[in-house]
Amino acid sequence: MIEACGLAKSFGSAAAVTGLDLSVPAGTTLCLLGPNGAGKTTAVRMLTTLLRPDAGWARVAGHDVVAESRLVRRHIGLSGQYASVDECLTGRANLIMIGELSRLPRRAAKRRAAELLARFDLERAAGRAVRTYSGGMRRRLDLAASLLGQPSVLFLDEPTTGLDPRSRLTLWDIIRGLVSAGTTVLLTTQYLEEADQLADRICVIDGGRVTAAGSPAELKAGIGSAHLRLVLCEAAALGRAAGILARHAAGPVRRLPAGGGLEVPVVPRGGLVTEVVRALDAAGIRVDDIALRQPTLDDVFHAVTGPERAA
Ligand SMILES: Nc1ncnc2c1ncn2[C@@H]1O[C@H](COP(=O)(O)OP(=O)(O)O)[C@@H](O)[C@H]1O
Ligand SMILES: [Mg+2]
How far apart are alpha carbons 35 and 209 in whole angstroms? Predict the structure, then answer.
């Protein structure tokens, strides 16, 4: 539903996006994950026909974003980084107006607005001016506005930035619901957890280019294995404990610098931690603390953006 090849845009001499390649199958979610200034909004603006690329091409819902921009616009919804609703109008009036601007007859616009207000839990606030809405309500209204034309492809630029954790969860549920109903979603975020929660595929973007791509699981797997970390009551038992741990290890056992602890790469499976503790107990070794740590997208993010930022 979304395809891009070599998409590029500079502002003056500053390159904002350099050679972006994307391919998003229908009914899936792609997440562009990157820090501020990475080029996420610029990429979204090119894909949504708001900005003309300097180089490369993109097709959305089968149409070229430059040559067939009007056709593209007919199939897409965009919820921008900054809410696009009118502060002085009520929630309902905003939706009806946007519906009419996108050429729905007034009756249809009213009906669709009512449906969306109910779906996004905005019915009670529908008659109030948007300036009285909370951040979460605004975001839901903005998302509702982007759905008036029943788009098959939805672009969400940092949909939960600045929201409280509860509103974020609500929005995640809404987005998941849209995807399971068949909508294709391209979402940008600075939050690793958000990408992990929502994306079928993630492109980590930094300095205008993709620095890593894959499913959340692939990105995590690429960064290394899970680790078992162990602290003993008596440092004297470290040597013997290392011998026992080695039987469960997927790599060399390492002593932690602060003393008293060991760390070992493992292949996680049910019951692993119990087995290790039992084996140590049987050898009379007392354990103070044990933790199984899975690699997180944070590790991925720091691995692929870290060195470059420092340079
Ligand atoms: N209209 C513009 N004029 C000049 N520079 C811009 C403009 N839009 C974006 N940029 C620059 O392009 C880079 C990427 O910006 P942007 O796409 O907004 O990143 P993100 O959305 O990931 O934060 C930044 O360095 C930004 O300052
Ligand atoms: Mg942005």
Answer: 12
